[in-house]
From TrEMBL:
InterPro entries the UniProt entry points to: ATP-dep_Prtase_HsIV_su, Ntn_hydrolases_N, Proteasome_sua/b, Proteasome_suB-type
Organism, scientific name: Candidatus Cardinium hertigii
Signal peptide: none
NCBIfam families registered for this protein in UniProt: ATP_dep_HslV (TIGR03692), PRK05456.1 (NF003964)
Name listed for the protein in its UniProt record: ATP-dependent protease subunit HslV
Amino acid sequence: MLPIKSTTVLVIRHHGEVVIGADGQATLGNTIAKSNVRKVRKLFGGKILAGFAGSTADAFTILERFDEKLQNYRGNMKRSAIELAKDWRTDRMLKRLEAMLVVASCEELLLISGMGDVLEPDHPLVAIGSGSMYAQSAAIALVRHAPHLSAMQMVRESLTIAADICIYTNHNFVFEELKNEE
C-alpha cells in the first residue's frame, strides 16, 4: 500500500480575524486520488477552527477526539490540545494514527502532533502538510510586508503560491473564518 501524501493547511490570525484554508488534493503514490478533500472544520459551535494533514481516517479520529476534549473542558483549547496530545502519545490505538492538526481561536493558534507536541507558533500563523513550508514562507512575507491585506487575502495568496510550487497541493481551496466579536 502506497502512503497517501496530501495537503497544505494554513491558518493566519490578523487584525481580529482568523482564517484557515486548505487545498483539496490527496495523492496516492504518484497519482492524484482525489482533488476536493475538505480538510478544514469549525468545532465547538463554530468558535474554533481546525485543519488536518495526513491520513484522512486518522485525522477524522483525532478531530473527533479533540472535539470531545473541547466539550469536556468547556472550550479551553489549550487544555483540550494538551489532553489530546497526552492520549495520542500513550493510547495503544491512537499512537498509531498518522496525522497532524492545527487549531485556532481568535486568541490562540496551536499545532498538535502524535509525538505529544502542542506548539504555539512564533508568528501569528501556522502551516502543516506537504506544501506547508511554501505556504508558511509566503504568509510570513505577507504578514510582514503587506499588513493592509485581510487574513483571507493572505491565506488565499499563500496557498496559491504553495499550489504553484508543491506537486502535492492543488488550487481547490476551502476556507473557514472567525471574526473577533469585540
